[in-house]
Amino acid sequence: MSNLDRQATPSVCGGRGFVVAEPVRELLTPRRVPLGESTEVRRLLPNLGRRMVGAWAFVDHYGPDDIADEPGMQVPPHPHMGLQTVSWLHDGEVLHRDSLGSLQTVRPRELGLMTSGRAISHSEESPKQHARFLHGAQLWVALPDEHRHVEPHFQHHTDLPAVTAPGLTATVILGELDGAASPGTAYTPIVGADLALTEGAETRLPLDPDFEYAVLSMSGEAEVDGVPVLPGSMLYLGCGRRELPLRALSDAGLMLLGGEPFEEEIVMFWNFIGRSGEEIVQARKDWEEGSRFGEVQGYDGARLSAPELPTTPLKPRGRVR
């Protein structure tokens, strides 16, 4: 998925200097951003209060939207570098096309994982014949320096492992949780899990104290470590936790995001992640000139143009603002 914000500004993220080393309860509120013709997303990362959680560098939550009489998601071809995109749906379908020739419909509770590596382009759209509701999350994972120039590739996994407890099913999307490992390729110590809670459930989820964590609320009413978390908000939890208390006030859907704090500083602008402003300038130039990122075949429409770069120089500001 693309960052369609035409006022995109570069930011420097990562580094361990601002990682919260102890458990906290920091509620992050979203910024609303239009996505295409009929979809609006709630952007949780990067946030005014926090830019990364482990290697997770970008989190959008959208829906549930009634798109019965709408085109739904329509994201034209656009580039990525230095990151992985994670597509996760609770309702609806998304048709993925990319410059490698991949053509795949991603459905609820299936993992669509695109590793951009050195360069890729893709589009995402609701199929012409689509379900009434569209509801999901789109996330990016920053690639570490040693892997950020890998050959681009796309993975689609329909059979994902789960961790269960009374009233809880935790589907492991990426990385590992309580001994269950996703088949998706991960390049850093990380976890992403979909948590389905039934009304009245009270349980504790095992965590790694060396990871930092956040929980995104997708639907329903739940308390995370005693804090009410409403759909479209995200609770940052810090590090140092061995377990996480969860309580469902109704049937609820959450996403657990975590990982070892990302120690490298990264520069993120539009749909690019690099290590310097010069890299970002070159990537934008390559996309505008039609080189390096390939071409998406089959999308009915023009590709996106990159926003203008700001005139002010980049200023490293760490993980939080």
Automatic annotation (TrEMBL):
Q: Which residues form the Pirin C-terminal domain?
A: 193-293
Q: Which InterPro entries match?
A: Pirin, Pirin_C_dom, Pirin_N_dom, RmlC-like_jellyroll, RmlC_Cupin_sf
Cofactors, names only: Fe cation
Q: Which domain of life is it from?
A: Bacteria
Q: Which family does it belong to?
A: Belongs to the pirin family.
State the residue spans of region: Disordered: 302-321
Instruction: Show the Pfam families listed in the entry.
Output: Pirin, Pirin_C
UniProt keyword list: Iron, Metal-binding
**Binding positions for Fe cation per the UniProt entry:** H78, H80, H122, E124
Q: Does the keyword Metal-binding apply?
A: yes
The UniProt GO MF terms for this protein read: metal ion binding
Report the cofactor remark: Binds 1 Fe cation per subunit.
Q: What is this protein called?
A: Pirin
Which part of the chain is the Pirin N-terminal domain? 41-141
